Hints:
The structure holds two protein chains of two kinds.
Chain A: E1 4-8, H1 12-24, E2 28-33, H2 36-45, E3 50-53, E4 56-57, E5 60-61, H3 63-71, E6 76-78, H4 85-89, H5 105-120
Parallel strand pairs in A: 1-2, 1-3, 3-6
Antiparallel strand pairs in A: 4-5
Chain B: H1 3-23, E1 28-31, E2 37-40, H2 42-47, H3 63-66, H4 71-80, E3 86-96, E4 100-112, E5 119-127, H5 129-162, H6 170-193, E6 197-199, H7 200-208, E7 217-220, E8 227-229, H8 230-249, E9 259-268, E10 272-281, H9 294-306, E11 310-316, E12 319-327, H10 328-331
Parallel strand pairs in B: 7-9
Antiparallel strand pairs in B: 1-2, 1-5, 3-4, 4-5, 6-8, 9-10, 10-12, 11-12
Helix pairs in contact in B: 6-7, 6-8, 7-8, 8-9
Amino acid sequence: MRKTVLVVEDEFLIAMDLKLLLERHGWWVLGPAASVEEALALMDEELPAVAILDVTLRDGTVSLVAEALRAEDIPFVVASAYDKPEHVGGEILAGAPNVGKPTDQRLLLAALEQAIYRMNGTSLPLDP
Amino acid sequence: MNLEDLYRLMRNGHVQAQGIIDTVPEPLLVLDQNLCVQTASRSFFSTFKVDRDETIGQHLYELGDRQWDIPELRLLLEDVIPKSKAVVDYEVEHDFPGLGRRTMLVSAHRLFHPDNISRSLLLSIVDATKRREHEAEKDVLLGELRHRMRNLLALVQAMARQTTAAGRSGEEYRDAFLGRFNALVQAHDVAFSHNGAADLQQVVERTVAPYSGSPAGVIVEPGPTVPLASGQIMSLSLILHELATNAIKYGALSVATGQVRLRWEIEEASAPRLRLVWQESGGPPVAAPASSGFGTQLIEFAAKRELGGRVELNYAPAGLMVEIVAPLASVS
């Protein structure tokens, strides 16, 4: 089965890095989206299994995207340089795992798998 | 010593004590055991805009429309102080009439008079409102700085992770990584030495400076002034760096006779657009690469996503020609 992840990140180098990194590990990447508008448009076309969110985007904070994901029961992890992303992006981000920025590759991959597992109670097949 | 002398001494002592109290820059009160004001420093009167006559002899809580009748202060005076010898920087937040909301740091010290059993209380009140505000501002600034540093580190991490390692020696990897790293440093320097804005000419000159030394090298044709925002400086610097390293490895700059000409113009379409052209000549025969590496992806990603424009890489046999067109609305 295809495992899809929505990448929301406005810094193009970091967005590229996340995309290439995730693709290398068997993920199908939607995005990267650099704005709330772009992220919501991508979700209109296809819903991901999980999302990774930067907090401040070109057109505001990511909270609207997080709310749209929550409404669809799609889990998300935050990749933010802020210690407390919820102070910037709102309460909707509280409790979501923050894999930090710079982002450790193993931590990121594990957090995505765990987010899906916690939401569904099942795990996606891991990479060989 | 007669009574007269003693009186003089006591009076001098009092004058001396008052003198000392007046030199203290913070508001200072001396209270008797019933919390009535025995004396106060000059700065107490000026800070709280009260008169000497309406202060001395009054009960602390009665002062200035009962502005000192504060629950936190009552707790300090009636509960904390009797059990301790001194209290330092006890924080009291209160709305003072005429002063507004203030954070006061109250310090207290009990004084025993050896000759009689009277106890007086030395109370200093420091208005820490400004200091607290500065501290809060500093915390915000430090937090922002930390955030920016982490973002910068994340950029470096992205470069380190995506610079090709497979099939390369450690040395080759290092040089490729450091080349990109240096482009990032240059872009950062240009962007932040001018409050986040700079001109295209500067960006171009700094980025190609390492490659302009060879006999032909990179020739930058004079072009119109194009102000750039920090995000655009970053992407153009990285694009030019990728083009230059590519030219050195495979293109015109890999041979002594090769040359790169760089020129740009502003197109007055419905919205003004920047057209930047990188033209190589005199190099070995050119062929399109079999697969696009990270460098090519970076160029395309930066031009499309960051500059909101498009890029064309034309592998003409006479030399690579790269054309970047980006709307100036998103550039300036």
